[in-house]
Amino acid sequence: MPRRLLNALLAAVALCVLMAGAASAHPHVFVTMSSEVVYGPDGSAIGVRHAWAFDDMFSSFATQGLDSKVPGQFTREELAPLAEVNVTSLKEYDFFTYAKADGHKAEFKEPVDYWLDYTNQILTLHYFLPFKSPVKAKALNLEVYDPTYFVDFSFRDKDPVSLAAAPPSCKAAVTSTNGNDTSQGQKLSEAFFNQLSAASTWGEQFAKKISVTC
Question: What pTM did the predictor assign?
Fold first, then answer.
């Protein structure tokens, strides 16, 4: 994964450049996720709404030194610049979200309606990722992963995936490939991961999968 040297603020919040050299094993950032597949009036899927809760270490590091009216508390407006940097940094990596409709790749547009909140010292990124074209498929499969495994994803324990305005026949299920086993990443050197890029497929083995059948 590239390690662009930004200023301290950007480095703190850019998912793909955070904490370069801070540890010798991957992953470095842990995200607990929930997702909602959103449907339009005609029964087509129009996008995915993500909520990614970062681990407490990342949350503390990312908010360190930020100005706020109330110490230790941050409004959505105060966190807006950080949200923009997160989303901008994810573009190169397809927002860590990959979709297939009936076996064919379904492409996304750039995120909209994105923001960060900070609750109980945990930073959570919310954003809506629209499909380039509405998707009407019997089988819609989504995978969420970081190709370079700098970020590790896990599903939220309760209601990790939901459907919004979906046809009654649609059902969703989730699969966590390899569970939450991070031992493979811990056995490899930092040099190995530094060679990986957005085009790499190594992180796919840790993908968290959502399948919707209609």
Answer: 0.84
